[in-house]
Amino acid sequence: MAENAAAGRFRAGPAAGFTLIEILVVVVVVGLLVVGLGRGVRAAISLWDAQQRRIAQIAELDASARVLRTLLTGIAVTSAVGPADAGGAGAFHGDASRLSFTGDLPTGLGTTRRADITIVLRGGNLILTWTPHLHEIPLGPPPRPTDTELVAHVKQLEIAYWGSPAPDQPASWQARWDGPAPPQLVRIRLVFAKGDRRRWPDLIVASAL
Q1: How many CB atoms lie within 10 A of CB 142?
Q2: Which of 21, 42, 161, 170 could be joined to 183 by an S-S link, Cβ 3.0–4.6 Å?
Q3: Helix, strand counts (H, E) of the chain
Q4: The model scores a pTM over 0.85
């Protein structure tokens, strides 16, 4: 009888381990967990990348709006005198898609302070073009303009000017403005392509008078 009990214990030993089916189930469950974890990580990375792109786009628009506000509040009011002004520099010229004036550059855009500035949509990008403002006609070739991209992938630029077109007329929004004196307000509107999630609230700036 003792031999039978020992034999029974010997036979019961392997039954205490894992069967092949149990091992396969564990492997499948672990595999599903790894796959789910991998998909979750990829989804989290995609969301992170999308959020970072969104933050970068908002930062680009905010920085561009600050630059434009600084430029428009630093417009120089000059009279049309002198050789340089006779050539168009120093006066304010603007229409619905282009704006040119003389003003002060923000810190970091150039080594000169006073410049002849143009804001224009070129190749689908909002471009700031400037050259140092010269009070006299240069002896050599004029300085080449410097281009700075403010906002990329812009579908349409709309600029409007608030002021009185004539002394006897009330102030209103104008699609064009020409003269040595700037308008009271300048409104810049950017339109993006359909599907572009960026939003540009109308930038309305009181020019320096």
Answers
A1: 11
A2: 161
A3: 3, 10
A4: no
